Amino acid sequence: MSRKQHIAIFTTASLPWMTGTAVNPLFRAAYLTKDGDREVTLVVPWLSLDDQKLVYPNNITFSSSQEHEGYIRHWIDTRIDFLSMFNLKFYPAKFSRDKRSILPVGDITITIPDDEADVAVLEEPEHLNWYHHGRRWKSKFRKVIGIIHTNYLEYVKREKNGQLLSLVLKYANSWVTRIYCHRAYFTVLLFLVIRLSAATQDYPRSIVCNVHGVNPKFLDVGKAKYAQLQSGEPAFTKGAYYIGKMVWSKGYKELLNLLTWYQNKFSGIQVDLYGSGEDSEEVQQAAKNLSFAVTVNPGRDHADPTFHDYKVFINPSTTDVVCTTTAEALAMGKIVVCANHPSNDFFKQFPNCYIYNDGEEFVKLTLKALAEEPSPLSDELRHELSWEAATQRFLAAAELDQIDDADRTPTPKRSFSSSLKPKKLKRNMENASAYIHQKMSGIEVARRAFGAIPKSLKPDEQQCRELGLVLPEKKKRKR
């Protein structure tokens, strides 16, 4: 009865790649251990040197997993005011250039020993399981919870044959999420799947809940800015900016279109863009064609002092699920101008969030934001942005703040005999579906046909040596 709950968090990216699935699960792991009531293990991908050079910025590379772990722990420990107590493990992975994503290699469930396999949190369960070939998550873990981070369908629709590809991907996402995340028969939820916002693909009977918070450093900046305003000092001396990976799909297309269509309304105004990415040159060229000042700058950490004095954050992106930079800007006390889109529903409760429905309203609200001072952020709303609040929302949504399932006495409305057959049938169908996926994912030709990285069924010799795994047996040559 005194055994602590063990939570294993599996995610699809790792620092120093500053993407949401690297940063947010790291904060989640730290804050879940803050009260000392749980044991938490964060499981992140390990990339060999060639892939590290493709993914990690500023030529940062690691010669060992121990060195990489040291970097991650230093990063998080300098951003929180308590000692993080989570464990950190790596699974072998490779970078897919065409998908611009990290994909697992081999059976990543083995990173957690069977005697610690209690609760698994799959950050991006569809992504982790597209090509999963190994032990079934629900056979190993008592409870498997999926958190949907990314609007993959929106990205795919922008590619060639996008509509057809999005239909295939929608089915694949639903399939792997259904067979690998748990059902909860006697609770409100049918599938233990949490969608950060309604902007994601709709999963049957999933729950929409923003279980992310912001780095506490942003809240500290916001408090300092509020103190400046209270004392009569000029707190915001710069105008409008946007920060994000510099690819068209990350809001730059929408932003440059709006600035181009209404450039005559922005005379005398400067907008600064910050980001690095594959489309940087095209974005710079588009900015040069505008009749007012739009500067394009290299990407940097949003917590950099460069951004503290900006008053207005413009974010027209509609591909995000819950935009981290929008939350960070609000935490710093800024006014945010963003589109009326499901990804921004959580932010509508904040007075400094200006929502526009069309181009004319975008112009009106942007000019209004530049002419006014931000409203003070109340203690209640500041708490809503914090990781303390996000952690409580997560525990409630995942039903981890309730009595253990094993100690529950279920009281279904229907009698046991009347409900047994439908449940058994559903379970059998799910088992058959999982069996088919298991077989298909173990065939190299089938994996390649659906976009898997070649030879990613098992870790290669280099990955095994780097992570201390058992080396694969070499096939004997026939004479």
Strand content: 15-25%
End-to-end CA span: 60 Å
Percent of residues in helices comes to 25-40%
Shape: globular
Rg, nearest Å:
24 Å
Q: Give the overall average pLDDT.
A: 87
Strand order of the largest sheet: 4-3-2-1-5-6-7-8
Largest sheet: 8 strands, mixed
Overall structural class, as computed from helix and strand content, comes to alpha/beta
Which segments are poorly predicted (pLDDT under 50) over 5 or more consecutive residues? 184-191, 405-418
Number of helices: 17
Q: How many β-strand stretches?
A: 14
Features:
479 residues; alpha/beta; eight-stranded mixed β-sheet; six-stranded parallel β-sheet; globular; membrane
Q: In terms of topology, how is this protein built?
A:
Elements: E1 5-10, H1 20-32, E2 38-46, H2 49-55, H3 65-77, E3 87-96, E4 101-104, E5 119-123, H4 125-129, H5 137-140, E6 143-148, H6 152-157, H7 162-180, E7 193-195, E8 207-208, H8 216-230, E9 238-243, H9 252-261, E10 270-274, H10 280-288, E11 293-297, E12 310-315, H11 324-331, E13 335-339, E14 353-356, H12 359-371, H13 379-385, H14 387-397, H15 416-440, H16 444-449, H17 461-467
Helix pairs in contact: 1-14, 7-15, 8-11
